[in-house]
Amino acid sequence: MLPAFLASDAGWRETVGRAAFCARAFAAIGLALSCSFFFQLESPMSSVTTVMIVANPTVGALMAKSMWRVIGTLLGATISIALMAAVAQSPVLYTMMLSVAVAFACLVATFLRLFRAYAAVLTGYTIVIVAAPSYADPDGIFLSAMARLSAVTVGIVATAVVFMASSVRRPDRVMTQVGQMVRDVIAYAMEFHRFQYAGGRSPDAPTKDAVVLGGFRTLPLPLNDRRGALLARISGLMSSVEYAAADTYEISRRVNALRVGLSGLAGVVATYHPLWHDLENDAAPMRGLHARVASLMEEILELTGQPDWMDDPRAVLSVLGIALDELAAAERAEQDIAMLSAIDNMRDVLVQFDAVVRMLVAPSMPRRVRLRWFLDWPTALRNGARGGLIALLAGLLWYVLHWSAGPMLMLYIVAASSLVATTPSASRSSVMMAAGTALSVPAGIACHMLALPRIDGFPLLWFALCMFLAPGIWLQFSPRYGIGAFGYGVFFAAMLDVSNPMHYDDIALTNTWMAFLVAAALLVLGFRVILPPDDRLDAARLVGSLSRALRRLALVLPVAPENWVVWEGLQVQKIWRLAMRLSVGVGPAERQAYTDAALGAVSLGRLVVRARRIADLPSLDVADAQAMRAALRGFDGLLRDPEATARGLVEAAQAILGRAAPGEAGLEARRGAACLQQAAYILRAVPGFFHRHGPLQLSPEMPDAHRPLDAPVPVYTPLLGRVRRQAG
After folding, report:
1. Pairwise pLDDT comparison (686 vs 218), residue with the higher score
2. pLDDT band at 276, cuts 50/70/90?
3. 700 and 536 in contact (C-beta within 8 Å)?
4. Alpha-carbon distance 569 to 549, whole Å?
5. % pLDDT > 70, the chain
6. pLDDT above 90 coverage of the chain, percent
7. Transmembrane segments in this chain: where (predicted)?
8. 607, 684: one domain
9. Beta strands 714-717 and 219-220, pairing class
10. pLDDT, tens digit, for every residue of 69-121?
């Protein structure tokens, strides 16, 4: 009978955390507003809007957002002065140039990550904020810029003072989260191997709970769900590390090592996918191998349960080293290709996990090993076109109608377009942002009609503002309503006309509210109607990008540890985006199939790198090295005929095995053949994923657009279209 937040410890901690954040945000609002009145700023509510934008429960995130907000404000003020000076006498030309600036801001905001995106957001936002009071008097543009910069500075300093004074910075909290994430991945691997040694059946769940996707090995639903949850949590933890690095020296010193380590941890999760090679079977040696690895993971899980294991990871590394030595000895004695492939695969997982642990506990990382962030050009260009188009429409609407609320219309369009461009799905976020803005209008009416006329001092004003802003602050970090609550809080503060003394003008206020409603409608029009999203097309582009990256890895990219780390990190970022795109427009079975295939592509990349390294060994026979290199050159036709690439890999593997000497002498050759065999199976399991005419690459109305990924891929010609099916 208790409320939900009282029924569990997690719910209670979340409620207390939100309440503490609200209290600190209210204190920052009061301090910023009082300082604005004390300094007699022209627009005191601008400082409150700044508080609403930069406030964050994490002090590091707040400081970083504040710094980039100042940078964006300075840049926007400079551009605003330059635009006004250049085209003050040509409103249409000014609107066109402003639209170009807004489009560029939206494009850059899509590329940048986390707090850096606020520089682009505030650049476009500040251009209009600074210019709005000067449209009637262009000579006052410089004073307007100084007033805007003053309000932003007051809001940032007030927020920083309140949050830094009331927050206890604990760098060990982030490291504790990193350690717990490592343990969760170990637990997932342990369950996976337990499932494998049980013969492809979950020992804890009936077989009807398994998901069967044409040609794939089955995984129980809990394992599939946990895999996606782990990848999402690793992505969120990488953001937390970035925020902590902006505030804590200990984390900033090792932030690069933590980035690379968490990216590698995501790679470990990606390794455990259903496309384990079909050479595996239910024979006792195979099941015994999985049982040994499962017991190893259980032992490591117990060791990592110690609170100080990250300070002294020698016990964990020692256990991993012993297991790797055992697998190496088993490899030297093994002749069966199925067992050799399984041992090779598991040995690589343990090697990767050993490297991840060493990176996460390292005090620093070489500067040359730096992750690259995936630049989604199609999405960025589309967001830029959306922002520029609706800014142009709003400017022309203002110019044609001579609407006195035109500056407020432009203010919202520019700010909201830039803000939604920073989200993973701008089209969906635009609807939530517009909904939050629409709710802020009746709240603003109620505040002006019911609260402000009865206020006779600053305490009551502070209380009234906090009361109306409370819903937006409370829900701001809700996964479901966050962007809408953010829009409500920011634009409620922006539309209030609070000054000292107060001047009530109902016509002007009504005009402002109408401008915000029209602007919200234009936002949805531009992001959902004029340039609507096409999640299937975006997913197809990401799948094509994964295939091209794999081809480049096999043919062009030099084999070096830092290159592999960067490559894997980029592909994991693509998989995160692919999972989000596939969440709309495709069925659950199809979505899971493409996610599994994408994870298989990352594992295929590991096999390619291992094969290239083996081919470069001086101890390898010349004929074997040439055969491996020729097989890898077959990846040149990966996008045209993945099955031909797989046939070349199998033929090379069989030729190498036919020449391989038994025992230690032929170990490297057998390892290379095992890598080629596993790579061939992944290609044959999902040829439709790698082919440029795969089902996702086709229009949804085409008959082959929803065929299974393991089905033969039709051959297309520019003139005749589909002409035949490839032989299996």
Report:
1. 686
2. low
3. yes
4. 12
5. 85
6. 17
7. 21-39, 70-87, 93-112, 117-135, 141-165, 431-451, 457-475, 512-531
8. yes
9. unpaired
10. 777 778 888 888 888 888 777 888 888 888 898 888 888 888 776 666 767 77
Three-state secondary structure string covering 146-192: HHHHHHHHHHHHHHHHHHHHHCCCCHHHHHHHHHHHHHHHHHHHHHH
Q: Are 355 and 369 in contact (CB under 8 A)?
A: no
Q: Specify burial of residue 618 (Cβ count, 10 A radius: 0-12, 13-18, 19+).
A: exposed
Query: Within this chain, do residues 234 and 299 fall inside the same structural domain, yes or no?
Result: yes
Give the tens place of pLDDT for each residue, 456-514. Answer: 888 999 999 999 999 999 888 777 788 889 889 888 988 887 876 677 777 888 888 89
SS3 of 29, please? helix
Find out whether 690 and 638 touch, Cβ atoms under 8 Å: yes
Asked whether the whole model's pTM tops 0.90, one would answer no
- The total number of structural domains in the chain stands at 3
Same domain, 573 and 603: yes
Decide which of 361, 394, 426 is a domain's last residue: 361
In a domain, 106, yes or no: yes
pLDDT for residue 201: 47
- Among 432, 167, 397, 197, which residue's Cα sits nearest to residue 298? 197
Kindly state whether residues 380 and 341 are assigned to the same domain: no
* Final residue before a domain boundary, out of 514, 529, 544: 529
| Contact assessment for residue 719 and residue 636, using Cβ atoms and an 8 Å cutoff | no
**CA 49 distance to own-chain centroid:** 27
Coil vs helix vs strand at 101: helix
Whole-angstrom distance, CA of residue 526 vs CA of residue 548: 32
Q: What is the pLDDT of residues 573-618, one digit of tens each?
A: 898 888 888 877 677 778 888 888 888 898 899 889 989 999 988 8
Tens-place pLDDT, residues 171-182: 567 888 888 999
Answer with the residue of higher pLDDT: 172 or 716: 172
494 lies in a domain?
Answer: yes
**Mean pLDDT computed over every residue of the chain:** 81
Residues of the chain by 3-state class (helix, strand, coil), percent to 5: 75, 0, 25
For residue 221, is it left (φ>0), alpha (ψ between -120 and 50) or beta? alpha
Give the Cα separation of 192 and 34 in Å (integer).
58
pLDDT at 64: 67
Q: Is residue 727 part of a domain?
A: no
The Cα 656–Cα 661 span in angstroms is 10
Q: What is the pLDDT of residue 5?
A: 54
DSSP assignment of 665-705, as one string?
A: GGHHHHHHHHHHHHHHHHHHH-HHHHSTT-GGGS-TTSTTT
Residues 77 and 51 in one domain: yes
Distance CA 197, CA 292 (A): 9
Question: Who contacts 677 (Cβ-Cβ below 8 Å, separation ≥6)?
Answer: 277, 279, 337, 341, 649, 650, 653
Give the domain CATH number at 263: 1.20.120
Please indicate, yes or no, if residue 370 is contained in any of the structural domains: no
Alpha-carbon torsion, ordered 268, 274, 278, 282, to 10 deg = 90
Both 571 and 687 in a single domain?
yes
Nearest CA to 656 out of 686, 614, 703, 687 is that of 614
* Single-letter code of the amino acid located at 615: A
Name the helix (H) or strand (E) containing 334.
none
Domain of 122, in residue numbers: 4-169+375-529
Residues found in the chain: 728
Which tokens sit at 575?
């998989």
Instruction: Tell me: do 14 and 32 sit in the same domain.
Output: yes
Asked whether residue 253 carries a pLDDT value surpassing 90, the answer given is no
